[in-house]
């Protein structure tokens, strides 16, 4: 069906092109005579007019082409524009008519590059031309005025005695704990209130209106956008795919109506628009496109075009940088953008201290006695300090009439696209994510094949007879197939939970309805269910020896397919109801347990208590088991009477679970912070602070904090050796990505760093700068030894000696962009833990505690030292406080060298100033400190002593001193011919990045990397590096007698201490395990009440046996699965701590009958030993006789003859069960030591 449709579209496009061409030719013929006299007169003038005539020919052609487009119907006219001609891939003079909805990727890219060559200048020109076109036709664009009056937000809190940490007891009191640090100014709360994003539990008073409309009269989530400080993005998608999906779902707003009105008015006025502007406006006015020119534009102006096809990434997967991630969420502008704003709102302690025009803000604060320093940015000054109000009050007193509002200013529709378009967008994204996670699905299928082969050889047909005894084995193999296919769907649970935060954000902003998310997820899993069911059936059906009729083969295949579909839909439903990994995993296993117990195989339906037999018909597994057993045992060879097969029940459950998944997505709330609990001490401090604020200034006498000068004079009590790091001709290569290979890149390896030479010295704060993609983080990872792949060439020396990574890790600290910390321990405990493991064993406990206290004070964490770290965006300390904690954790190891990777990314000016003050304090202790930095403010740049500047492609273009007010940097670049001079009071960092950009290089015809290599500065730096590459006289190469600072026992104690705190303060983890055991015990007790006293035959015994087996299996699996999310959180922390050389992985890791060839599998299976121990201890010495397969036997002899269980083996069983945890701990230790799944 696809081919005819495509063909029709192509025919329409061809006929449209022919129609335009004919219209153009007709217009040329019609106007030829009218232009003939003009052409003749032009020919008789001087020769200079010839070139003018050729230019006019192009203009005439454009006018004629435009006239032809204007004759077309409106809906066609709005999709056609004039585009640059292209012949054999080369651009030609003149224009051609194109359909803007069908521009190719390269055409879009070249077009945007043409419009915006130099972002700062050309973007303004483009926007000016857009406004100019709108103004020409007298069209007024819709605007929104947001008003708020007497707005107040209140939250409930609970006061407790002592330190309110989250424990199991606090959870049982229905209160989750969050210990707050110093109160913020309320910016986030105000923004959430203005966009309708406040939690429903908060008490909100006052009025908020948009153009006079209240929140309940329009859709504020579609009218405004709230951009959180936390980046919630799908890590598997690329930057371009993320923006394309967002643009596709959010629609185009009122741009289509505006474009239609502009086109109508231009046609009436006879105005011919500039072709490029027309193309851009029309291309951005078409909704529902998979790839839009708007995405290319956003990528260009945000500087994300260089990483457009790079995945976003996360802590375990290499992706874009922190700065790029922030710009992907929203543009992260330079400090100079303050000048672009008209009004300023300044807040402090939840109150507005200034709201008015930008031009009046400095006068206002000068009147209050605060003067802005000459070289300080105004925005930075306002964040550090705290007749306009009357004017604002007068404006607000005049009500805004709704009739004055433009119809397109506000959004009154919940969704931007039609239902079918939203469904297609979600379907495309789901298919993309499945392809990105193809390893998971392939691995599941391969795993299923391996288990199917094992099952086939376990129940091989040569050992199976058609009799009563072997019927149980046939039934067992069928039952195992069912539970295997059900368990295979459990991976869907973790995948769904992982994506829920992004879903909640997009759902709450009405990107799409819940069904548009759930239906594609269900449809696209069908092929995988068909594949898995077919693989299992094909490998096991005839191998085990089931009934040979073909129709029974296909029926079993269809039955397993339904079971698999039911399973993955059930796990998706559970994940949407409980979007927490640990809790969802436990609930999923509890659901499986109930299905197994009521499924009819573990305990037969007649053996169920009469008052619980209804549960049999509520278990999907019961229907599957009935269908599978009837399919096999009603075959002619079993000589049974036939009855109808049951599959309709499974289909019903599949439908119910998918509907439940959709409903849960629609109505479930995103997990948020619970009611705050604060200590009595914190409450007293808050009240005291509020009382002081109400006292007149002359009477108030608050304690004066320690001055910056005093803090800079702090010296650490522990000695260390200042170290210099030098590097020469460092190069770094990685394997060429597949995408580049497809694009024709000829080399096997891609070079990311080119001949980098330099040095970092003690007492000097060095900045490593460059545009995104310059290789700043790559260079730092190479120098610090953090790269896990690629090839490194060149020479790196520490104190003049070649770098040895194991030794180097002991004397260096590395502060990553992503602040990775254990969430359930406090700030002080995090620092104490690092000091315990990283300081030498010779330092006693008291000195260590004093050193920790000094570091906490130096890093300015003393006020929040008892706060839990928490999870980013969910609980705990703020982003800026996490940055400081990361620095403290590294500094407490008493390193000689500290690397900081973009420590100020994502922080406001005040927070960045605090971080840089901390860095300066560290440098003043004569340590070597290096920071990668991205577009710093003037204040941040002034803190640095030296700068290494890199350009895109990993090449160095400057290395040297900054000088007073960056004078030496400015002098170097201004001496290069053609480089524009810096403006007065302009940020040198912004100017430097602008004048060294790729577009400036191309414009000036310069290569800054070559110029640096040829400069006197480079020669001077080479001499310095050569000198520092030689060991100082009398010095010795660094050497430590032991690999780790602490011995194995101290490592074990420290790890056990932290793990104990982390587990105890994880109430969800502890509670779900407790609930699982209690609920499962109650279920087993109810189902098997007094069964042990009523054993009369093999079925009674098998009921108890099956129940014990299921209990052992699920108790172990639940403990394993519930701890996995916890371990996954800690795993990235372990990688960081392992790189730092904190501890050895060993210390962390310690905190039926079958074929003879599978006998070894029995002896290495913990479940088999657990089952043997339980059954033997309970029934191994009971001599009561029961009827077994028609003969009388004692229970103990039946246990020994049928299962091989002897009562005398209990001692061996106990030893083996004790050995398994030790074995798994050793395996975990080896995995932590040898494997690293991070990709950097």
Automatic annotation (TrEMBL):
GO MF, one annotated term: ATP hydrolysis activity
Chief location bin: membrane
Transmembrane segments: 439-460, 472-495, 515-541, 553-574, 586-603, 646-667, 1071-1089, 1101-1128, 1157-1175, 1210-1233
Annotated compartments: Membrane
Family matches, as Pfam families: ABC2_membrane, ABC_tran, PDR_assoc
Gene3D superfamilies per record: P-loop containing nucleotide triphosphate hydrolases
Keyword Coiled coil annotated: no
Domain ABC transporter: 734-978
Keywords: ATP-binding, Membrane, Nucleotide-binding, Repeat, Transmembrane, Transmembrane helix, Transport
Membrane-related topology note: Multi-pass membrane protein
GO cellular component: plasma membrane
Family: Belongs to the ABC transporter superfamily. ABCG family. PDR (TC 3.A.1.205) subfamily.
Protein name: ABC transporter domain-containing protein
Organism listed in the record: Dovyalis caffra
